[in-house]
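Write out the 3D structure for:
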Amino acid sequence: MNQPEAEAVLLDGLQRQLACYARADAAARDIAECVGRGEDVSAGMDRLTAPLDEAARLGAALAPVKELWQHQAYRPGPALQTLLRQLAEAVAGVAERVVVAQQAATARRDLLWPQLEELARAQRMRRAYGAGPPP
């Protein structure tokens, strides 16, 4: 495979990866919002992991071309350089959104923890004194 052919394959595969990261980014934003509202995030997690899994599969399929590229010491053209920069920014964006979602989940947990502790204490007291469940 010559350089133009390898670059065409990389451009196609990396553009598809970029689309995956765009979908993952939107899902990560939705997860952070759901956590903030106290909603279930399981559907959002599926919407996050599916495109990341797809991006990983695409990356694995591109591995032989990347290896050839490196072995032949090819230099990327302007389109590939731009796409690589966009891809790096997209990956960083998804990572940042995941951190925001994780921080929102931690804040939500910290907000609820005292309430859970109080409920557990009240339940232990009811059991200790033989009282039934609250009305």
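The mean pLDDT is 89.
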